Structure formats: structure tokens, C-alpha cells
């Protein structure tokens, strides 16, 4: 009888130990899932920020504020002239 009681006690302790390991593994995976969720949120927020940045950079000047063709050409020519002057004729 003592032998049977000892076997049952040992088998139940083994079950408890294995069950504890399962619980620890689940807790570990829950922590990992929480970390991954936070990383995803950070990446998503950074992506949204970049999208907004791109939208701002493609903002067009309204027609009332735009340059005429001649003004644009004059700006291009005037900005290119100093480069030729300082080039030294290499």
C-alpha cells in the first residue's frame, strides 16, 4: 500500500511540475506577444509619419502664387551662372 501511495504521489508531483512548465511557457509567450505588439505599433506609427511627410512634400503651390515661365528660367540661369564663374574653366 505504501508503494502504491508513493507512486501516486510521485506521478501527481510530476504532473504538477509539467503543468507549471506549461504555465511558464505560456507566460513567456504572452510577454513576447506584448513586445511584438508594441514593436508593430511603433513601426506602424513611423510608417504613418512618413506617409504624412510625403504628403506634405508633394504639396503644390497654388496657381496664384506660381512663377511665370520667364521667372523660372531667370532663376535657373542666375543660379547656374555663379557655378560657371567659380569653375575656373577646367
Quick recap of the structure?
The protein is mainly alpha-helical. The radius of gyration is 36 Å and the shape is rod-shaped.
Write the layout of secondary structure elements.
Layout: H1 2-57, H2 69-87
* Average pLDDT taken over every residue: 79
Summing up helix and strand content along with how strands pair, one would put the structural category as mainly alpha
Shape: rod-shaped
End-to-end Cα distance: 106 Å
- What string, H for helix and E for strand, traces the elements in order? HH
Radius of gyration (CA) equals 36 Å
Q: Residue share in helices?
A: over 70%
With helices defined by DSSP (H or I, 4 residues minimum), what is the helix count? 2
Strand proportion, as a percent range, falls in under 5%
Q: Main β-sheet, in a few words?
A: none
Would you identify the regions where 5 or more consecutive residues have pLDDT less than 50? 83-90
Please provide the count of β strands.
0
Q: Can you offer a commentary on this structure?
A:
83% of the residues lie in helices and 0% in strands. It is built from 2 helices and no strands. The protein is rod-shaped. Mean pLDDT is 79; it is low at 83-90.
Features:
90 residues; mainly alpha; disordered C terminus
